Amino acid sequence: MIHNWKHAADFYERVDRLKLHGLHFQHISLCERRAWMYMHNINFAQWYGRVQVGTVKHQISHVRDHSVEGLFGLSPDRIDWKNCIVYENKGTGGAVEASNNQTAFYAVMLSIATGKDWRAVTHVLSTRRNREVLLDDEQMRNLWESSDRLEILAGMKKVPRARCIPLCKTCSLSGFCGHN
Ligand code: SF4
Q1: What is the pLDDT of residues 134-167, one digit of tens each?
Q2: What is the CATH number of the domain that holds 147?
Q3: Is 90 touching ligand 1 by the criterion CB < 6 Å?
Q4: What are phi and psi of 81, to 5 degrees?
Q5: Does 173 contact ligand 1 (Cβ within 6 A)?
Q6: Full domain range(s) for residue 137
């Protein structure tokens, strides 16, 4: 399926040129301002307590798997090279579309790079369950449109406007946005 994808070459070129990786595709599904801040390396997470605690918990609960060593530019949590499956860990099963976008991105990039069909699986740490991410037409359209939006954001000099959304309550940028 991915090998017949009409956008494969353009997608790969765009990802390489803009230096995009999985978290860009997660952020753009959640909030354009968040994605813009991430693209421009503006990050308040270091001094935001919630994220600091979350980062430490993540580091303790999950030592990075050896299967992902040497994957320049891509940083999924685990790769089953034999069966062509890429895994991304998430703390909870929430924000399904955003986390699907991130995991699907890894599978698509690996498929394009290796010429094999890769599957994408999100592993939910709180339930220890796997959730397969289907690389169907809708998901592929989502990835392509996300890359379009990221291309536009990359060229924007000013931070985009952002209305208050439910995510703001837990976003590390809420102080900056005044949505806390
Ligand atoms: S606080 Fe809200 S508007 Fe601001 S970056 Fe976060 S999610 Fe987006």
Answers
A1: 999 999 999 999 999 999 999 999 999 988 999 9
A2: 3.90.320
A3: no
A4: -65, -35
A5: yes
A6: 2-177
